[in-house]
Amino acid sequence: MTSSFPERSLIRSPSSTRTLFNTVMTVVAFVCGALALLPLLAVLSYVVIKGFSSLSLNVFTQLPPAPFGEEGGFGNAILGTLMMVGIGAIISIPFGILAAIYLTEFSSGNLAKWIRFATNVLSGVPSIIAGVFAYGIVVLTLVKLNLGSYSALGGGFALAILMLPIIVRTTDEALQLVSQDLRQASVGLGATKFQTVIQVVLPAALPAIVTGSTLSIARASGETAPLLFTALFSSFWPSGLLQPTASLAVLVYNFAISPFPNWQSLAWAASLILVLMVLITSIIARWATRQKA
Q1: Between the chain's N and C termini, which has fewer beta carbons within 10 Å?
Q2: Contact criterion met (CB below 8 Å) for 212 and 163
């Protein structure tokens, strides 16, 4: 039986309007994507060029030099940054995960909406406000107790405030994406609500939780304003949690605006180290997600 409809080619003509429109929009989308990447590539390339030439073993093992000195580094700032980010992570990650578990698994609908709204507001608060708040809560309290003033503890507390909403939001979304069938199967096998959350829901959402935690750590590593109010700066090795502590972000701020060439050189090297720290944490986050997939 022959078809009564005329045969038409499935290949669209290159000169057709639809083909031309599709080609033009593809080119436009490619150009827009390239333009979006251009600022990132420009910043990264400039930091790498300026910072790599200033890198040496001394920057990891020595203290900042005198204004007109030749040798020196910022090993104390690297150690101080790790200390304060570690304090912030110890405070924010457990509280953030527990808060997200409560929102997703145990809270009522209206209360969860208000808490999520408050978390979104907190995530939009400028970092300098978090620094002022930490100054009033930690620094002034230490002064009243005669235990010190500016300290790594205050800096870590300020960073924890900035990290907390990121962890809560990412963990909350990760827990909501866990299938309800897993929860129902666990309950059907006799598990309690608490056992279901700990042994079924959390392991399923763990890669996304790790991603959110590492992204919050990456953001906290580059914060400057909160540390100016809480940890200040020090040209010496950290001697305790209640002493002024150096950090890479504050070192970049102080040295970059100085008139001394050796300090400016160290500022570029510290900038490169900060970028590498953010890159490493982002790679860890992607690796954790890929492992689950």
Answers
A1: N
A2: no
First to last CA, the chain: 51
- How far, in Å, CA of 15 to CA of 58, rounded? 64
Give the Cα-Cα-Cα angle 253, 222, 74 (nearest 5 degrees): 55
Which candidate, 237, 257, 255, places its Cα nearest to that of 82?
Answer: 237
* Mean pLDDT across 235-243: 89
Predicted structure pTM score: 0.83
Are 151 and 138 contacting, i.e. CB atoms less than 8 angstroms apart? yes
Nearest to 95 by CA among 200, 168, 193: 168
Dihedral over alpha carbons 150, 151, 156, 158 (to 10 degrees): -10
Is residue 107 within 8 Å of 119, Cβ to Cβ? Answer: no
Angle at 95 between CA 91 and CA 99, to 5 degrees: 160
Contact (Cβ atoms closer than 8 angstroms) between residue 288 and residue 210: yes
pLDDT at 72 over 70: yes
What's the chain's length in residues? 293
